[in-house]
Amino acid sequence: MKVANRVKSALVISALVLGASSTAAMADDASNQAAKDLYRTQVTAFKSSITTWKASKEAIKATFATAKANAVANRDAAIAAAGTDQTQISAAKAAFRTAIDQAKATRDAGIAQLGAKPTKPVKPVS
User: Fold this and answer.
1) What is the dihedral of CA 64, 69, 70, 71, to 10 degrees?
2) Phi, psi of 85, deg, nearest 5
3) What is the Cα–Cα distance from 85 to 79, expressed in whole angstroms?
4) Is residue 121 assigned to a domain?
5) CA dist., res. 13 & res. 84, Å (int)
6) Tens digit of each residue's pLDDT (9 = 90 or more) over 86-108
7) In-domain check, residue 107
8) Which domain holds residue 6?
């Protein structure tokens, strides 16, 4: 009888210990799942923001390239029309520098307004 009671006690204790550890494991699984769900949400938001950021940066680059090409074309046309008149050539070069400086200022302001590149979220530890 005493042996049977000891076996029963051991089984009850084992069940309680295992139940407590499995409850803790379930809580860990739930918190891991919540962390994974949050990570998925953050990754989706990151993908959207990085796509927008890259598109905006490309638009800024394209705008600058167009402004630069126009400035070069205007300068070359003005120099060709000036012939050997140094005053007109100097004026064309000064206008070119002004146009390039304005294009750079516009580009730099756009990049400053764009802000820092979005950072990828950190994957939760499993």
Assistant:
1) 90
2) -75, 105
3) 9
4) no
5) 104
6) 999 999 999 999 999 999 999 99
7) yes
8) 2-114
